[in-house]
Design goal:
single chain, 439 residues, alpha+beta, 4-stranded antiparallel beta sheet
Length: 439
């Protein structure tokens, strides 16, 4: 880094690495709240810097999906999308998506009705990704647990692919001490090759003229500029300028002789952690054929209860069922099923049949922008009650609360459902998501 920056800049850079990392969140525009505030992040209108780091786990608004805790530099993706993507809906893939920060940002920044496939190859991280996508509340989503090569079975289908690739993590040094102990020159070389393998596998899935957003949270040129140059020369791409505002103090290429429009966030210049991002348009016209869809097999009782329509806002999608017991909503832009993909979430879970005459609303519906809150009796709960609910404890609601399924709200935001029996309310919050931290 001293060789790349020069002695004077390196001293400032090194001092910044020994400083305190800023805390930032990004607000969910589909769940506006007056209870969150902070200094704005210049390149993302929903971004906020906080003066201190609260306990997000103990904030019910976090679990309601009103905001996402995201490093400010990563929010530059919002500016990139608004600068480089047109006004028409797109089919997008966030290839290395866990824990979900950039995917949730894409749901807010991309044109309305864009459909986003959020993928993570590591299963336990994919489960966390699924939880965060559901809490964000967009119905135009699919969460998968696959390798990059698995997507070739879809053909050349994506208008936009985001590759926030696994890297050596130098940009996390002041935030994560483990990033320092895991670093080595050998790991940098290994990451560079792994990144190229991932890019080679996913490139055929991008449509000619489509955009690849390549990003890392590291500083070295091997994983950054050298890989961008490799994409241009080997895969067939041109670098696109995202036009950052000069006042943001974003640094360009540090590789001598390579002046493509790339963006570097350095902590002594910008208020955020280390980030590298480049936008590339596919000029290569090689494509993969899209397989013909197979006829759907009829399974079980396919009757869709009319009641489900009243539980949702008017929308352009359809309700379907696979087994006659679980009902899901699929947006009109939904990606067709692909048997070769391991799908953890597709669309929005709406309800599960309980016996012949009863439907239990799904937690995903409570989180979704599809929810028609007027369809259910609701109960506004306190912070202590909200935390008890998030710990999956039973609650007792006011005596005048109707029996049956009740939507709990905190500061007017849906938090989830309970089944009110009168003497107590059975908690329907997903047990795998329960919080264990005590106040």
């Amino acid at each position: 880094m001293q060789a790349l920056l020069g002695a004077e800049q390196f001293e400032s850079f090194f001092d910044a690495l020994n400083g305190e990392a800023p805390t930032s969140i990004r607000l969910n525009p589909s769940k506006p709240t007056q209870h969150l505030d902070g200094q704005p992040v210049a390149w993302c209108p929903e971004g906020r810097y906080l003066s201190s780091r609260p306990s997000f786990t103990l904030d019910p608004l976090f679990h309601a999906g009103t905001y996402y805790v995201q490093e400010a530099s990563s929010m530059y993706l919002w500016h990139v999308v608004r600068q480089c993507v047109g006004e028409q809906p797109v089919l997008a893939l966030d290839l290395c998506a866990a824990p979900g920060g950039k995917s949730t940002l894409l749901h807010s920044a991309l044109p309305t009705a864009s459909f986003i496939v959020s993928n993570e190859i590591v299963r336990h991280r994919a489960d966390i990704l699924r939880e965060n996508i559901i809490k964000w509340g967009s119905p135009h989503n699919m969460v998968t647990n696959n390798s990059a090569a698995d997507f070739q079975a879809l053909g050349t289908v994506f208008d936009l692919i985001l590759c926030d690739v696994p890297c050596s993590g130098e940009g996390m040094f002041r935030k994560d001490p483990d990033a320092i102990t895991e670093w080595s020159l050998q790991n940098v070389d290994m990451c560079q090759q792994r990144q190229r393998d991932i890019l080679t596998d996913i490139w055929p899935c991008l449509r000619p003229g489509g955009l690849l957003i390549y990003s890392t949270c590291t500083y070295n040129t091997k994983e950054n500029e050298e890989n961008v140059r490799w994409i241009i020369n080997e895969l067939g791409a041109e670098a696109i300028d995202s036009h950052p505002d000069p006042s943001w103090n974003i640094t360009g290429s540090l590789l001598p002789g390579f002046d493509a429009p790339v963006c570097r966030f350095l902590p002594h210049k910008t208020c955020g952690e280390g980030l590298f991002m480049a936008v590339l348009r596919k000029t290569d016209t090689t494509t993969l054929p899209r397989p013909k869809p197979k006829k759907a097999q009829k399974t079980g009782n396919l009757r869709i209860p009319a009641l489900l329509d009243s539980w949702m806002q008017p929308n352009d999608g359809t309700i379907t069922t696979i087994d006659g017991q679980s009902f899901i909503h699929l947006s009109s832009s939904s990606l067709p099923p692909c048997p070769t993909l391991t799908t953890l979430n597709r669309g929005t879970d709406i309800a599960t049949a309980k016996g012949k005459d009863r439907l239990q609303p799904a937690h995903s519906l409570a989180m979704s922008s599809l929810l028609n809150p007027a369809a259910f009796p609701s109960a506004e709960i306190s912070e202590l009650e909200a935390l008890a609910y998030l710990r999956t404890e039973a609650l007792t609601l006011p005596p005048n609360t109707p029996r049956g399924y009740v939507l709990l709200t905190y500061q007017q935001h849906p938090l989830g459902f309970v089944n009110n029996l009168g003497s107590r309310a059975n908690n329907l919050y997903p047990s795998a998501w329960r919080i264990r931290m005590k106040a």
